[in-house]
Every structure is written in C-alpha cells, then in structure tokens.
Amino acid sequence: MHNEIEKVLFSENELQEKIKEIGQDLTKEYNECFPLVIGVLKGALPFMSDVTKRIDIHLEIDFMDVSSYGNSTVSSGEVKIIKDLDTTVEGRDVIILEDIIDSGVTLNYLISLIKHRGAKSLKIVTLLDKPAGRQVDLVPDTVGFTVPDEFVVGYGLDYAEKYRNLPYIGILKPEVYKES
Ligand code: 5GP
Ligand code: MG
Ligand code: MG
C-alpha cells in the first residue's frame, strides 16, 4: 500500500501536532458549553476520533453521511442524506468536522440544514482545505492545512474506498489511477 504513494504531504506526526492544537483551541472556546460535534462520514472519521480526544471538556458526538447527486459535473447543490443525525440540533452549539473542503457544495448544504434546524451556533472545522476547487462562497472557521489542487489520500480520504487507513496524507503515484 505504501509503495503506491508518490509523496507524503503531512506525516503522522505533523497531523497529530496540528490536531492537538485544534483540540486545545476548541477546549478554550467551548469551555462553558456542551457542544455537539458532528463528523461527516466517512472521511472525517480518523480526524473526529483524534481531535475529540484533545477536546478536554464534555461534548456529544454524532455523525452524518451525505452524498452529492449526479456525477462529476457542476453540482446543483442538491445533496442526499444517507445517514441523518440522531440528535436534535435546536439550541445547540454545533461543530462540524470535515476531512477536506473542495467545491464546498456538500458542506454548504449541511450548513443550511443545521442552521434551518435551529442551532444556536455553528463552527466549521476542516482538517484540509483546497480553496482552488471552491464553487460556492464558503470559508471554514478552522483549517488544519491548506492543500494544492491535487487529489490527496490517507487519514480518512479514499481513492475508490482504499487508503483511508493510512496514518498520513499523501498523493498517489499516477500509475495507480491507470490500473483501475
Ligand atoms: P466538496 O467540498 O467538493 O463538496 O466535497 C468534499 C468531499 O469530496 C470531501 O469530503 C471528500 O470526500 C471529497 N474530496 C474532495 N477533494 C478530495 C481529495 O483531494 N481527495 C479525496 N480522497 N477526496 C476528496
Ligand atoms: Mg467529507
Ligand atoms: Mg471519497
């Protein structure tokens, strides 16, 4: 598996250091609250798991799984809910955790949904941001790392459902795409 990676962008250590910082910041900011931390499946799972261990206050976790309708062409912004929250967000301080924001279409939909359901506050925390891909006006509140306009894998991020279990984030060798 590792020999299919051309370049490591963020090592396991770099990721964990950054996640520790993000966790410490959130601990301070939500000190007086009982935030609801929502992870967007499946990509945000490792980030969710590691960052929540660094948030040193009471919190509640929940998950959502969504998929965009249609194919690779410009999305209408329509998103299908595969798994909804178990929790009521009304009146809650909500933190959404994402693996990466590219076009922003998915998150844009989630933001409207959570606001519509009456969250008291909403914060968007993404491990990676790819601003070059943006199709909607969306600026996350917290970004771990900004990435170039390249397809990255690892630490939750997949290519054809593989590589999510890499402990680091990298770029695949071009021949991997040719083989499939
Ligand atoms: P968008 O912001 O375009 O609505 O979609 C974001 C989702 O697309 C991410 O949560 C992720 O699942 C997927 N995605 C976007 N860019 C990349 C990338 O570079 N690598 C991988 N593996 N997935 C990506
Ligand atoms: Mg995602
Ligand atoms: Mg994917």
Automatic annotation (TrEMBL):
<keyword id="KW-0328">Glycosyltransferase</keyword>
<dbReference type="Pfam" id="PF00156">
    <property type="entry name" value="Pribosyltran"/>
</dbReference>
<feature type="domain" description="Phosphoribosyltransferase">
    <location>
        <begin position="14"/>
        <end position="159"/>
    </location>
</feature>
<comment type="function">
    <text>Purine salvage pathway enzyme that catalyzes the transfer of the ribosyl-5-phosphate group from 5-phospho-alpha-D-ribose 1-diphosphate (PRPP) to the N9 position of the 6-oxopurines hypoxanthine and guanine to form the corresponding ribonucleotides IMP (inosine 5'-monophosphate) and GMP (guanosine 5'-monophosphate), with the release of PPi.</text>
</comment>
<dbReference type="GO" id="GO:0046100">
    <property type="term" value="P:hypoxanthine metabolic process"/>
</dbReference>
<keyword id="KW-0963">Cytoplasm</keyword>
<dbReference type="GO" id="GO:0032264">
    <property type="term" value="P:IMP salvage"/>
</dbReference>
<dbReference type="InterPro" id="IPR029057">
    <property type="entry name" value="PRTase-like"/>
</dbReference>
<dbReference type="GO" id="GO:0000166">
    <property type="term" value="F:nucleotide binding"/>
</dbReference>
<comment type="pathway">
    <text>Purine metabolism; GMP biosynthesis via salvage pathway; GMP from guanine: step 1/1.</text>
</comment>
<dbReference type="InterPro" id="IPR005904">
    <property type="entry name" value="Hxn_phspho_trans"/>
</dbReference>
<keyword id="KW-0660">Purine salvage</keyword>
<dbReference type="InterPro" id="IPR000836">
    <property type="entry name" value="PRTase_dom"/>
</dbReference>
<comment type="similarity">
    <text>Belongs to the purine/pyrimidine phosphoribosyltransferase family.</text>
</comment>
<keyword id="KW-0479">Metal-binding</keyword>
<dbReference type="GO" id="GO:0004422">
    <property type="term" value="F:hypoxanthine phosphoribosyltransferase activity"/>
</dbReference>
<protein>
    <recommendedName>
        <fullName>Hypoxanthine phosphoribosyltransferase</fullName>
        <ecNumber>2.4.2.8</ecNumber>
    </recommendedName>
</protein>
<comment type="pathway">
    <text>Purine metabolism; IMP biosynthesis via salvage pathway; IMP from hypoxanthine: step 1/1.</text>
</comment>
<dbReference type="GO" id="GO:0006178">
    <property type="term" value="P:guanine salvage"/>
</dbReference>
<dbReference type="GO" id="GO:0000287">
    <property type="term" value="F:magnesium ion binding"/>
</dbReference>
<dbReference type="GO" id="GO:0052657">
    <property type="term" value="F:guanine phosphoribosyltransferase activity"/>
</dbReference>
<dbReference type="GO" id="GO:0005829">
    <property type="term" value="C:cytosol"/>
</dbReference>
<keyword id="KW-0808">Transferase</keyword>
<dbReference type="InterPro" id="IPR050408">
    <property type="entry name" value="HGPRT"/>
</dbReference>
<dbReference type="GO" id="GO:0006166">
    <property type="term" value="P:purine ribonucleoside salvage"/>
</dbReference>
<keyword id="KW-0547">Nucleotide-binding</keyword>
<keyword id="KW-0460">Magnesium</keyword>
<dbReference type="GO" id="GO:0032263">
    <property type="term" value="P:GMP salvage"/>
</dbReference>
